[in-house]
Design brief:
This protein is an alpha+beta fold. The chain has a domain of about 230 residues: putative glycoside hydrolase family protein from bacillus halodurans (Beta-galactosidase, Chain A, domain 5), CATH 2.70.98. It is about 25% helix and about 25% strand. It has a 10-stranded mixed β-sheet with strand order 11-12-13-14-9-8-7-6-1-36. It has a 6-stranded antiparallel β-sheet with strand order 15-28-29-30-35-32. It has a 5-stranded antiparallel β-sheet with strand order 2-3-4-5-10. Helix 6 crosses helix 18 and helix 16 packs parallel to helix 18.
Length: about 775
């Protein structure tokens, strides 16, 4: 993709003198080196992306420190072959659609994602060193592998559109005899390595490998029918050899072999450079949908790596991310988790302007009929639910159990009555609606599904002696023990009823259930609290270390309790301090949640402190995350915590730079997507916000707390004064039609509207495994 000119005019128009000044690629050594080149370079995206590249000058040995490639479907993690680090490098081959189909054994065994296998790159000599770089901008791994017989120069990618793993290797003379070997994995649930097998469960038969007119294929049949196939071919062009790999999955038909062979034959005559060119086109356009630069080099690099990771792991048409994304490894969690993981994995797509990754909205809509089967039969006519775990089609497998359903019944056990998961997942759908104002999301997905999710609660909500509406015992994710008036459920029920009423009004629906929703909001019991803040529920105080913030959802992410009064603020502060004050069970997403709650309170220093704890204690060298196995929700949710420090847009107000630490005196954000479907651009210099610009995509009401001290000028896209209202507390209200923009500056100020990367405060090591 060609770089923009040095003076590419912003959409606000040349009358404002605005320009997008790009900055070019830095020298790779340090953040300070990068800053030296920023002013004269040509493209700010290249500046931040090249600076964020991961590097390896030491051999990675696990999922947690190696390079990773993917396109939401096909994924490859790369590291030394365990037990043979000096003789082989493993290129894993995994696929987000490959799963078993035996629901009688549940989602974690019978419907689990299945491992596929891996290739080993086996040099002639012993490996003595490496120098690899994962280019975020190109989504490509490049570098050299040194041996005592020579070198192997490699390039590798998972093609964005064709779902092909392509690895080009150019050997020196002494390494011309290197080889590739495929190792099929046993097609058994990864959970088998952690938990006893269910009665009657056994692994699938072994894969069979054969040649098909020059294309090799490992055919993995499944006991349930269908199967998956890994097909590959190596092509030689001069000294260079390129491996092409594709994975296909079919069920119940046996069509995977035909699909896989066809996919490989469609590309194996294309040179690697031709594949790379079309692959890069998508990735280059992807990054340019938004921009963020801040002076903490380590966190800025981490952030851009998460945007790369999100697009490597998620696409709208791909399965909702399982706990390890497409990079399946031995794990006790070989499917999709709905009581926190899936929600956190997708939050960053909204602010970063990447709704093309929204698999949650697509999956809940496409497979909604399966959600009825997850509640007991007598509730299926008007209710939906989602259990803790499902496969990509939102099936849990509980239909084959004694109970016949996956979501428990309040007041009964088993199964555990973890009722709120669907409502929480639908909050993600609501975020997608609010950030796009796409009425079809509201009308066709959110409203009908949320109506039935809330209906399930309404079957059990009953008045107590106090005249208030109460819930029987339900389960707050992971705390242990059921409790009446569980805050997890009360908070989601409250949000759901409020959202249904607002949605019905927007859609012009006279819903017969509306009086009941209003009654719930007026009469439901208060959230249980004690001297330490929010309890788990009426019968269960918060009294032990607990990684999950299920009892605090009204604070974050629902923004139902926001600190409007001094008492409410004190309740949030007390609850947050009590929650994180118990060491022992705290995990990474404890600190991302704490960072976002601190950002809500405007406490930027606290938010940065919590992110620092996360980075120091939990984030792995390649920015992955570990909890008894590989999981990816926490680093992705840390990107959202950073968003919450930079911009918040709950409650109909866009808040610019609401929780920045003092060290972040300079900051640039461009085309950050907010609720109301606005694209925000803003620049902070020397601790002062210089300008704020909002472009309206939907003509929604616009209120912005701009953070610019003193009187301001408010102008339209042609530089003319724009009628506005000062609403107090630093909030400006303006009427913008679809496509119109507003620019806010200090009165009389005409700042440079250049958007560029900012200078880092200090050097920081790169992610990956650099020598230092």
């Amino acid at each position: 993709m060609p770089s923009p000119s040095r003076r590419t005019v912003l959409a606000t128009g040349s009358a404002l003198g605005g320009a997008l000044l790009a900055s070019g690629p830095p020298t790779p050594a340090t953040a300070a080196d990068s800053a030296e080149h920023a002013a004269d370079s040509a493209d700010p995206w290249r500046t931040v992306l090249d600076d964020a590249d991961l590097v390896w000058q030491r051999m990675p040995t696990t999922w947690y420190d190696g390079p990773f490639l993917g396109n939401g479907h096909l994924g490859s993690g790369i590291y030394a072959e365990p037990g043979a680090a000096s003789t082989a490098v493993r290129f894993n081959v995994q696929h987000s659609e490959v799963q078993d189909h035996r629901p009688e054994f549940g989602s974690l065994f019978g419907l689990a994602r299945l491992p596929i296998g891996y290739f080993t790159l086996e040099p002639v000599g012993a490996i003595t060193g490496l120098d690899w770089r994962l280019s975020l901008h190109d989504a490509e791994l490049t570098g050299t592998l040194a041996t005592d017989r020579g070198t192997l120069t490699l390039r590798a990618l998972v093609h964005n559109d064709r779902s092909i793993l392509a690895v080009q290797v150019t050997p020196s003379e002494g390494e011309r005899g290197f080889r590739w070997v495929f190792h099929p994995a046993e097609a058994i649930s990864p959970r088998a390595a952690f938990k006893p097998l269910p009665d009657g469960y056994r692994g699938n038969p072994p894969a069979e490998t054969a040649d098909h007119d020059g294309v090799s294929a490992a055919v993995q049949p499944l006991l349930a029918g269908g199967g998956h196939v890994t097909a590959w071919r190596e092509r030689t062009r001069g000294r260079t050899r390129t491996l092409y790999v594709h994975v296909a999955h079919s069920y119940p038909k046996d069509t995977a072999l035909e699909q896989a062979l066809k996919a490989v034959r469609a590309v194996d005559r294309l040179p690697y450079t031709a594949l790379a060119a079309t692959h890069r086109t998508w990735w280059h356009a992807y990054y340019r949908k938004s921009f963020l630069s801040l002076p903490d080099a380590r966190i800025q690099r981490f952030y851009w790596i998460q945007l790369y990771k999100a697009a490597a792991a998620a696409r709208r048409d791909a399965p909702v991310m399982a706990t390890s994304g497409p990079w399946l490894e031995p794990t006790p969690w070989p499917n999709t988790w709905w009581n926190l993981n899936a929600q956190l994995e997708y939050w960053l797509i909204h602010g970063s302007n990447h709704l093309e990754l929204d698999a949650v909205t697509r999956a809940l809509s496409e497979f909604r009929d399966n959600l009825a089967n997850e509640v007991a039969a007598r509730y299926r006519t008007d209710s939906l639910g989602i259990p803790r775990t499902t496969d990509p089609q939102l099936v849990n497998g509980a239909a084959g159990t004694l109970t016949g359903y996956g979501v428990g019944i309040p007041g009964q056990d088993p199964p555990t009555p973890e009722v709120g998961n669907l409502t929480w997942a639908l909050h993600n759908v609501w975020l997608s609606y609010r950030h796009t104002m796409d009425e079809s999301i509201l009308r066709d997905v959110l409203y009908p599904l949320l109506r039935k999710a809330i209906n399930y609660y309404l079957h059990f909500l009953e008045p107590g002696p106090d005249g208030r509406l109460h819930l029987p015992a339900t389960f707050s994710p992971e705390y242990g023990g059921n409790t009446r008036d569980c805050n997890y459920d009360l908070m989601l029920l409250t949000w759901g009823c409020r959202t249904l009423l607002e949605s019905a009004g927007l859609l012009g629906i006279d819903d017969p259930l509306a009086p009941r929703w209003r009654e719930v909001l007026a009469r439901r019991v208060a959230y249980p609290t004690d001297a330490n803040g929010f309890m788990i529920g009426a019968d269960l105080p918060f009294a032990k270390s607990h990684r999950h913030y299920s009892h605090l959802l009204a604070v974050y992410p629902l923004y139902e309790v926001t600190g409007r009064t001094s008492d409410e603020r004190a309740l949030i502060e007390k609850s947050l301090a009590h929650w994180v004050g118990f060491e022992g069970a705290l995990q990474g997403y404890t600190f991302t949640g704490a960072a976002s709650m601190s950002a809500l309170l405007g406490k930027g220093e606290d938010a940065l402190k919590y992110l620092g704890e996360l980075m120091t204690r939990f984030i792995q060298p390649n920015t992955m995350y570990k909890e008894s196995g590989p999981v990816i929700e926490t680093p992705l949710s840390a990107a959202q915590s950073l968003h919450d420090m930079v911009c918040q847009s709950w409650g109909g107000v866009v808040r610019v730079f609401p929780a920045l630490p003092a060290a972040w005196a300079d900051l640039t954000v461009h085309d950050f997507r907010t609720q109301g479907a606005f694209l925000l651009s803003a620049v902070r210099r020397d601790g002062t916000t210089r300008w704020v610009r909002l472009v309206s995509e939907a003509g929604a009401p616009c209120a912005v707390r701009h953070g610019i001290p003193g009187p301001v000028d408010v102008r339209d896209g042609r530089g003319r004064p724009l009628r506005h209202t000062e609403a107090g507390d630093g909030i400006v209200q303006v009427d913008l039609r679809k496509g119109e923009s507003v620019l806010i500056t200090a009165k009389g100020d005409r700042p440079d509207l250049t958007v560029r990367s900012v200078r880092p405060n200090e050097e920081a090591p790169r992610w990956g495994l650099p020598l230092t």
